[in-house]
Amino acid sequence: MEIDRAGLAEFLRRRREALQPEDVGLPRGPRRRTEGLRREEVAVLCHMSTDYYARLERERGPQPSEQMIASIAQGLHLSLGERDHLFRLAGHHPPTRGASGEHVGPGLLRILDRLQDTPAEVVTETGETLRQTPAGVALTGDTTRFTGPSRSLGYRWFADPGARARYEPEDHAFLSRLYASGLREVLTRRGPGSRAARYAELLLERSTEFRELWERHEVGLRPRPTKRFVHPEVGPLELSCQTLVDPEQSHLLLVYTAVPGSASAEALRLLAVVGRQRLGATAP
């Protein structure tokens, strides 16, 4: 496929102009004259330089890679149909859709953008974190930084003892059962050759605990109503976890809340401050 530079430039401009800062979790600021987002704002959302993005809108520069196009599609909050169109304009075949896809739908992103002071994250059915709010990073650490199988919390739980540090020790045994059970259900649903099957194969080789749990063929376990965390800065927290599902991509939006007036609610308030401070420290 060949790149359609004119079509790509026009599509990017139209999508950028259709978005307002508040649509993507950015402050509007005073004396704003730009129609829609500024190019530098889109560049920040897409994790690329302003010059690189501006050249695309001006029909210049090299053909963007698939990784760059995926980042732009996510930054502009494109739907799956719009994402696929963007890939074709850039001269690439669109990624596959479904459970293995990692493009977060605009609906989940809009909600996530409005939850900056609330711990929240978007995860796949096999436990890879795709997006976190600043307060979410403050609660569990930056879980988007991992690569390979370690991107999955369920995989890290058995492969890396440090993955359990922020969870109440009394809950570890149940969580081990929960993750083994959940992985078996996903594997059965997706079949051999799936990501879940690969994780199970690796863990059967690596973890004695996982092998023992896997042999039980236990399914149907569900998370407890309250999740208990042990945070290195604010101490223990007891949080409820509400889940919103994107059925098209099998992505889950997890939102953590505390009972008003409780010690955990005060701890969450402190975590929100920590999240804002860290976000300000890393802002360009």
Helices and strands, in N-to-C order? HHHHHHEEHHHHHEEEH
Shape call: globular
Radius of gyration: 21 Å
Terminal residue distance:
35 Å
Q: How would you name the oligomeric state of the polypeptide chains in this document?
A: single chain
Strand content: 5-15%
Task: Give the number of helices.
Answer: 12
**Residue ranges: pLDDT <50 for 5 or more in a row?**
none
Do you know the CATH topology of the largest domain?
A: Beta-Lactamase
Count of distinct structural domains? 2
Please characterize this protein's 3D structure:
- 46% of the residues lie in helices and 12% in strands.
- The chain is α+β, with helices and mostly antiparallel strands and 284 residues long.
- The protein folds into two domains: 5-89, Orthogonal Bundle (434 Repressor (Amino-terminal Domain)), CATH 1.10.260; 106-282, Beta-Lactamase (2-Layer Sandwich), CATH 3.30.450.
- A five-stranded antiparallel sheet has the order 2-1-5-4-3.
- Strand 3 and strand 4 form a beta hairpin.
- The radius of gyration is 21 Å and the shape is globular.
Please provide a brief summary of the model.
The chain is of the alpha+beta class and 284 residues long. The chain is built from 12 helices and 5 strands. It has helices spanning 5-18, 39-46, 50-57, 66-75, 80-89, 106-113, 134-140, 153-159, 172-190, 195-206, 208-214, 263-282, and strands spanning 120-123, 129-132, 226-231, 235-246, 251-257.
